[in-house]
Design a protein that fits this description.
It contains 12 helices and 12 strands. The chain is of the alpha/beta class. Helix 5 packs across helix 7. The strands form 2 sheets. Strands 8-7-6-9-10-11-12 form a 7-stranded parallel beta sheet, sandwiched between helices. The protein folds into 2 domains: 134 residues, NAD(P)-binding Rossmann-like Domain (Rossmann fold, 3-Layer(aba) Sandwich), CATH 3.40.50; 181 residues, Rossmann fold (3-Layer(aba) Sandwich).
């Protein structure tokens, strides 16, 4: 008979380098306060056979970047496993149908990365509305009072379009409250009118959003349904002077169609993600003056410990009978990154 007072056995399916990357001392102490922790001493990513052995007798596990997919083979000895908490972004590299078939729950730390991505997206909004980058280039080239890129503006009062009411999209909406923007439009087929009202936004179709927004920010997942969501037909709907920001996934935008619009000079783009990634050395995106490019840095590139804190806190909640805050279910996989 199972001892009701026994502590849960939690396995870290991460090599030692990844453990240091995502679990700071405070988070490790929190985890040790409610569970018996099993960890590897390997300094390289674990292979399937090693993961399968570690899961024998485990009640829960923490995964992260570089962990093999949890297939039936990997889960062969995981008879006690109840939950997988992913201390990283997308759960898709780890999750398989074998988890759902066994009734194993899944939680994701992606909401932690969403905070950083949202902050970057809003920063890009501010500097692009102000035309900071092109005017910096102008000054570096010897100019000063010329206004070839139009007058610098303020984000105050602007209509902002958010594509995708994801964790990132919702964090962007929250941050924008500090900037006294105008209307916030959201296009998301999964967003209900009730939820839109609670967020204080106007729920619209994608064509409506593109035609009305001064700034458009992409926060939808990369799926078969969202590939080239922004194509030649609807990119033409963007207003003259509109700013398009993508900190989500490069595949959301048809790059050739975007370049065609950028060539006209009528819109400005800030791109942190590309398809392919990185863009080819001869990509016209690298040469166009009305584009700001960054190397996929919107997420937590230097400090990923927030992912670990979110994952461990969700694990604590689950093991103490509380609902996890960031659970991912099978039906959500076609609408998360």
């Amino acid at each position: 008979m199972t001892n009701p007072n026994a502590r849960a056995r939690v396995v870290l399916l991460m090599d030692t380098n990844q453990q240091r990357r995502v679990l700071d001392a405070a988070t490790r102490d929190l985890l040790a306060s409610f569970a018996d922790v099993v960890r590897t001493t390997q300094n390289r990513p674990l292979v399937e056979e090693e993961v399968a052995e570690l899961l024998d007798g485990a009640d829960a596990c923490l995964t992260s970047w570089g962990v093999p997919a949890l297939t039936n083979t990997v889960l062969a000895k995981a008879d006690r496993l109840k939950i997988v908490c992913h201390a990283a972004g997308s759960v898709k590299p780890v999750v398989t149908d074998a988890l759902w078939e066994r009734g194993i729950r899944v939680s994701s730390g992606a909401a932690a990365i969403a905070i950083d991505v949202a902050q970057t997206a809003v920063a890009l909004m501010v500097i692009s509305v102000k035309r900071i980058v092109p005017y910096s280039r102008l000054i570096a080239a010897g100019g000063w009072s010329e206004r070839p890129y139009g007058p610098p503006q303020e984000i105050h009062g602007k209509t902002i379009g958010i594509i995708g009411a994801s964790h990132v999209g919702r964090n962007v909406i929250r941050l924008l409250r500090n900037f006294d923007v105008g209307t916030i439009l959201v296009a998301d087929p999964y967003l209900s009118d009730t939820a839109a009202s609670e967020l204080g936004v106007r729920h619209v179709t994608l064509p409506e959003l593109l035609a009305q927004a001064d700034v458009v920010s992409c926060h939808a997942p990369s799926t078969a349904a969202t590939r080239h969501l922004l194509n030649a037909e609807n990119l033409r709907l963007l207003k003259n002077g509109a700013i398009l920001i993508n900190t989500s996934r490069g595949a959301l935008i048809d790059e050739a169609a975007l370049i065609a619009q950028l060539r006209t000079g009528r819109i400005y783009a800030c791109l942190d993600v590309f398809d392919p990634e990185p863009p080819s050395p001869d990509s016209e995106l690298r040469r166009l003056p009305n584009v700001l490019l960054t190397p996929h840095l919107a997420g937590c590139v230097s400090d990923c410990t927030r992912c670990g804190r979110f994952a461990v806190e969700d694990l604590r909640r689950f093991l103490t009978g509380e609902p996890p805050c960031y659970e991912v279910t099978k039906d959500m996989l076609d609408r998360v990154g």
